[in-house]
Amino acid sequence: MGKTLLVTGGAGFIGSNFIRLVIEQRDDWHVINLDALTYSGNLENLADIDLNSRYEFARGDINNSELLDTLMPRCDAVVHFAAESHVDRSIMDSTPFVQTNVVGTQKLLDAARRNDVQRFVHVSTDEVYGELPLDDPEAKFTEQTPIAPNSPYSASKAASDLLVRAYHETFGMDTLITRCSNNFGPYQFPEKVIPLFVSNLLEDKQVPLYGDGLNVRDWIHVVDHCEAVLTVLEKGSAGEVYNIGGNNERTNLELTHSILKIMGKDESMIKHVTDRLGHDRRYAIDATKMRQQLGWEPTRSAWPNALEQTVQWYVDHTEWWQRVKSGAYAEYYDKMYGNR
Ligand code: NAD
Ligand code: DAU
Fold this sequence. Notes:
The structure is a single chain. By secondary structure, the chain is α/β, with parallel strands linked by helices. It has one domain: Rossmann fold, CATH 3.40.50. Helices cover 41% and strands 16% of the residues. It contains 12 helices and 13 strands. A 7-stranded parallel β-sheet has the order 3-2-1-4-5-6-11, sandwiched between helices. Strands 7-10 form a two-stranded parallel sheet. Helix 1 (13-25) crosses helix 7, helix 4 (95-114) runs parallel beside helix 5 (152-171) and helix 6 runs parallel beside helix 8. The protein binds nicotinamide-adenine-dinucleotide and 2'deoxy-thymidine-5'-diphospho-alpha-D-glucose. Residues 85-87, 125-127, 181-182, 192-193, 196, 208-210, 215, 217, 252, 276, 283 line the site of 2'deoxy-thymidine-5'-diphospho-alpha-D-glucose. Nicotinamide-adenine-dinucleotide is lined by residues 8-9, 11-15, 35-38, 40-41, 61-63, 81-83, 85, 100, 104, 123, 125, 157, 180, 182-183, 189.
């Protein structure tokens, strides 16, 4: 028999890709998308499945316990993506990060427990492990790496991870945690580096590269991440943490040069700007546990193809990012990059 999932944050980048995957690949499952539609939530991301009878949208905050109690009795599992997700914003003001990522997760856990929801998958990040050095390329984050977050964003995600763990240990709740590396692909909010750089270049604007550009990220295609989360939901063991990565490390400078090349632009389009405060040097995921225990591997993340396809998606969806970049986001851009 099919399941009913409560997906939080399903109007955002990864959540919307996850809902599309579930609706396409599990033909007797229902999805309720609970999303507050903050600046990064956009129902256009799901326009193609909006009328599907197995999909339902509920606008609301994960902090609203009364609302949660009306939705959860129908749900077999929660897949929790909702979050404040941008490191730079957490440096400007960490208040909404604590409210949504920490308090919101606690409210969701309590509601899931009250309503006997069978399984709770918490979507977290590799950033909770802190940073790796540049001079030890073999070092990677495993599930045993100590938690050592460096930004207010990653500290709020680490706090939520610890709550999820504690609800398993204390109440025996069936909770699982995933920790993934940097995602790329369609529908990413253009404050994140890849859609920001591609859309700037399409507008003939320079791209703001932080510091020396040598920071390393491990890039994974969003659909690979979503398949991994679905695998954890279906096959993972209660109480476990699973690392998810693309095995695809690049410096930001390398990433920038690749984007410039794909788009036929030159070096003069790079603007070197002041570094991000506390900028983590390197992230890299060891996803051996996902491969060996759950049989998952990334299949869409290899560059240059996956990056070229992603750039092409933004070229083909100019109206999507132009609408997103206008309005309130324009104000944020001036504040973040105006005097940098
Ligand atoms: P996003 O910012 O694109 O989407 C977040 C969504 O959550 C939005 O739709 C927003 O409206 C919603 N939301 C925010 N606060 C809410 C609240 N209080 N109640 C209900 N909904 C709320 O983020 P994303 O990049 O899709 O990230 C999703 C999750 O994946 C986050 O938990 C993030 O920490 C995690 N993650 C992201 C990446 C990445 O590379 N983007 C990598 C690993 C993990
Ligand atoms: O590792 C997973 C994390 O990846 C997720 O948990 C976060 O939600 C997600 O936002 C992402 O965090 P990053 O901080 O790594 O992503 P961002 O796209 O903001 O930056 C990627 C790299 O590019 C980082 O080293 C900073 C750099 N950068 C970013 C921006 C926005 C620039 O050089 N210039 C920029 O303008």
